[in-house]
Amino acid sequence: MTIGDKIKRIRTFRNMTQRELGEALGWGEKGANRLAQYETNYRVPKRELVTEMAKILDVNPWSLYDATTMDATEIMEMLFWLDEFNPSAINLFQLETYPGEKCNSSDDTAVRYHDNDSWPAHPPVGLWFNYGSVNSFMKEWVIRKAELKSGQITKDEYFEWKINWPQTCDDCGKHEPSKKWRHSL
Question: Which end of the chain is more exposed for a tag (fewer CB within 10 A), N or C?
């Protein structure tokens, strides 16, 4: 997904026209045309401009930047955007340990699932991160997806949580997030 796709998706989520965002950036009458060039990937905005757009759009700038260094933040942003444009592509679930069994006490490391309609026809591939901040993020993401599925949060709230992560994180309910993202609590 390109930076232009991200700008357009967030701009339309904020109910802004290209003209309005162009004017907010100080581009005057030709603002909509210039913004259209960024959104169609005819031009690529410089990092300073992306940061300014992020301020106007009220999002974490990392939600717009292109991946470059592949650190934990960029990995999470890539997963967010994959989820945004392909909502059924990422299925999260919390693993649980078997009580009384010591970790790695067996050579059998398979994770088993019950075959039903919510699983794919072929066994899915699991992914486990051994990376602290990614693990914390994934735990909270499981909660947010469950809240969305159960109707506890709206699609807009879910998107707001993603585009302003990590300011919207509450460490799985352990503290208040630094940025409010729920419409009501």
Answer: C
**Same domain flag for 159 and 139:** yes
pTM: 0.72
CB 8 within 8 A of CB 37: no
Of the given ranges (7-16, 34-43, 102-111), which has the lowest mean pLDDT?
A: 102-111
Note whether residue 143 is domain-resident: yes
CA distance 122 to 64: 34
184 occurs within a structural domain: no
pLDDT tens per residue, range 146-171 = 999 999 999 999 999 999 988 998 98
For residues 44 and 99, state if they share a domain: no
- Mapped to the 3 state alphabet, what secondary structure does the chain carry? CCHHHHHHHHHHHCCCCHHHHHHHCCCHHHHHHHHHHHHCCCCCCCHHHHHHHHHHHCCCHHHCCCCCCCCHHHHHHHHHHHHHHCCCCCCCCCCCCCCCCCCCCCCCCCCCCCCCCCCCCCCCCCCCCCCHHHHHHHHHHHHHHHHHHHCCCCHHHHHHHHHCCCCCCCCCCCCCCCCCCCCCC
- CA dist 46 and 23 (Å) reads 18
One-letter amino acid for residue 149 of the chain: K
> Can you read off the two tokens belonging to residue 59?
């999002």
